[in-house]
Amino acid sequence: MKAGLKLFNNKKLTKNKEIISYKKPKYVYIPLVNQNDTNITPLVKKGDFVKVGSIVGKRKGNLRIPIHSSVSGKVIDFVEKPYLNGQMVKCIQIENDFEETKEKREVKKLHQYTKEEFVHQLKSCGVIGMGGNGFPTYVKYDQDIPLHTLIVNATECEPYITADYVLMMNHIEEILDTMDAIMEINHLDEVILAIKKSNQKLWKMIHNYIGTYLKIKVVFVSDKYGIGWERALVQEAKHVTYDKYPLEKGIVVNNVSTIYAIYQALKYGNALTERIVTFTGEMLKEPQNVVVKVGTPVSEVIESIGGYKRNNDIRFVAGGPMMGHTLPNDELVVSPNLNCVLVLKDWKKVEERPCIRCGKCVSVCPAKLCPVLIKDYQKNKRRLGELKPEKCVECGLCDYICPAGIPLREIIHSVKEGLK
Ligand code: SF4
Ligand code: SF4
Questions:
Q1: Structure pTM?
Q2: By CB count within 10 A, which of 106, 211, 263, 379 is most buried?
Q3: How many domains does the chain have?
Q4: Is ligand 1 within 6 A of the CB of residue 409?
Q5: Ligand 2 contact, 404 CB (< 6 A)
Q6: In which domain, by residue range, is 340 found?
């Protein structure tokens, strides 16, 4: 069996619906976190007035990327709220004055930015990877290595999530324009938009526009879950392998929502203060894709779209069913890298049984690891050195396939944490 797996697909719950907006939260709670790093210094105090796009915090260390307010109003408190990985993080509570007073930034026409101005704009607007990892995007372009290719990841592998799909269906011209501008500004040779083979409706729509952009190539990739992982995507789209990062080979990979955030930064000087989130799952009355402000309480959005079918025996997942994190309740707030909130019927955990050495976890792993051996040798540092658990991308496939119900992803995650 090749790595990756064709999974069940519940995208139909939201795929063909209009995007709606929920932009009027009374309070927002801006998480002081970036790429799971909570080492952020707040730059405001209680009573300060902020605008939409004002800088309210900054990460310490090398990758100094600012964090912005998503509303205009008054800073009223610092409180802890759950982040998408379930961790409690410090948030700045801001009372919305509903005036939408905006912080102004200088802008140019998309293609007229110099490389330095482009990098500066991405940095000052706080553009980060929106596919889940939250890595500061400017860093990928601010390199000494000559870059030659941009791959835009529009594969959206996780079952249920359609945020990128509806973004493309509604904003393809802005996305293609931005890809073209990035190519020119960074003197790239090639720009690739990677979509899944089965996504024919999307392709038909893109086909109507792509003729204007002669240098942009659309590449159709496998329908298997796992193809959205950067390493698998680069291999399938460019036939290139690398050691740690695609940048080593002059390749940048950006998620398609990140491209739209770059568009907002270049065209309007907008900081990353809102995004589309897929609110879905069988236990929501009306699953929807919603444009929401960063810091909005998830419970408020769910209420605004019709609420739950019932209030007990439900399970919340921040993210998709494969890579997301199960949370105890809906107290989570929206962060720039939250692409989905999934509300499912709760289920009893399958009782774990002894491993039957079937090898299925090995055959599906897109990182070519041996999950079963990592589990067996989780306390043996020497063996772990050979088994390389740090390469695990936490896709959840080994968990999904294991007939013995062994929580492999969780085990490998703790092994990785233990090695840090
Ligand atoms: S969770 Fe990690 S070990 Fe398991 S299949 Fe995915 S990459 Fe491989
Ligand atoms: S899939 Fe589960 S039962 Fe099969 S080898 Fe891996 S850990 Fe063992």
A1: 0.91
A2: 263
A3: 3
A4: yes
A5: yes
A6: 11-103+271-345
Pocket test for ligand 1, best of 401, 411, 412 (most atoms within 8 A of CB): 412
The rounded Å distance from CA 348 to ligand 2 centre is 20
Query: What are the residues whose beta carbons fall under 8 Å from the beta carbon of 316, sequence distance 6 or more?
Result: 326, 327, 328, 329, 330, 332, 341, 342, 343
Centre of ligand 1 from the C-alpha of residue 398, in Å:
6
pLDDT score of 225 more than 90:
no
Backbone angles phi, psi at 89, to 5 degrees: -130, 155
Query: Of the ranges 64-68, 152-156, 404-408, which one carries the lowest mean pLDDT score?
Result: 64-68
- 355 occurs within a structural domain: no
SS3 content of the chain, % helix, strand, coil (to 5): 30, 25, 45
216 backbone dihedrals φ, ψ, rounded to 5°: -90, 130
Ligand nearest to C-alpha 401: 2
| Shared-domain flag, residues 326 and 297 | yes
* Residue 116 and residue 264 in one domain: yes
- How is 176-242 classified by DSSP, letter by letter? HHHHHHHHHHTT-SEEEEEEETT-HHHHHHHHHHHTT-TTEEEEEE--SBTTTSHHHHHHHHH----
Estimate to the nearest angstrom the gap between the alpha carbon of 235 and the chain centroid: 21
pLDDT, tens digit (0-9, with 9 covering 90-100), for 255-297: 999 999 999 999 999 999 999 999 999 999 999 999 999 999 9
- The verdict on the CB of residue 412 being under 6 Å from ligand 1 is yes
Does any ligand 1 atom lie closer than 6 A to the CB of residue 300? no
Ligand 2 atom at minimum distance from 404 CA: 3
